[in-house]
């Protein structure tokens, strides 16, 4: 089902474990910060709606989505956390750089999920234009940050 047929912000709280004992890391790309701040707000709101405590959420910023892998790796290596959310917004430009950034961050985050025993949630928008990004960071399709927060709680309590 494509995003256009679902709202990314919809979740059934009764099906989500309480997050009050969980610690979260959030690594946020500064590129397209209007979008990434919207994603971050969606994630924070959902985490706290599900019981997470502000003092148990650590935020680090990185320059761009390509640096999300290193930022999450360093957070995993130095912080006691139950899940990490990687937040980025990649918007297609004139060249093929979009493809390399998207594939690099995708593979990097996938590799972290293999190398570490703490889930890293992929909250990276990879859009053809700004409107698609706006629609998915608190617009008509909801907020992928909300979706990522719910995924983080579910994965942190898996098993
Ligand atoms: N064009 C976008 C970028 N590009 C920057 C890279 O992510 C990286 O920071 C740079 O290549 C230095 O290593 N990043 C985004 O997050 N979004 C874009 O649209
Ligand atoms: C995703 C990118 O790196 C892209 O926004 C850069 O734009 P351009 O391909 O026009 O250099």
UniProtKB/TrEMBL annotation:
- Supply the EC number(s): 2.5.1.78
The entry's function note states: Catalyzes the formation of 6,7-dimethyl-8-ribityllumazine by condensation of 5-amino-6-(D-ribitylamino)uracil with 3,4-dihydroxy-2-butanone 4-phosphate. This is the penultimate step in the biosynthesis of riboflavin.
> What name does UniProt use for this protein?
6,7-dimethyl-8-ribityllumazine synthase
Which classification does the entry list for the species?
Bacteria, Pseudomonadati, Bacteroidota, Flavobacteriia, Flavobacteriales
What gene is this protein translated from? ribH
GO biological process assignments: riboflavin biosynthetic process
User: What's any one GO cellular component for it?
Assistant: cytosol
Family per similarity comment: Belongs to the DMRL synthase family.
Question: Where are the catalytic residues?
Answer: 97 (proton donor)
- Residues engaged in binding 5-amino-6-(D-ribitylamino)uracil: 31, 65-67, 89-91, 122
């Amino acid at each position: 089902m494509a995003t256009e047929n679902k709202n990314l912000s919809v979740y059934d709280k009764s099906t989500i474990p309480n997050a009050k004992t969980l610690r979260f890391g959030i690594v946020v790309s500064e590129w397209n910060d209007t979008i990434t701040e919207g994603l971050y707000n969606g994630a924070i709101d959902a985490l706290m709606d599900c019981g997470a405590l502000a003092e148990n959420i650590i935020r680090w910023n990185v320059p761009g989505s390509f640096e999300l892998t290193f930022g999450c790796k360093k957070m995993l290596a130095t912080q006691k956390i139950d899940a990490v959310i990687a937040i980025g917004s990649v918007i297609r430009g004139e060249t093929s750089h979009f493809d390399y950034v998207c594939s690099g961050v995708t593979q990097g985050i996938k590799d972290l999920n293999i190398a570490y025993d703490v889930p890293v949630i992929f909250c990276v928008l990879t859009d053809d234009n700004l409107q698609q990004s706006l629609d998915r960071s608190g617009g008509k399709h909801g907020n992928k940050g909300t979706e990522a927060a719910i995924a983080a709680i579910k994965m942190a309590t898996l098993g």
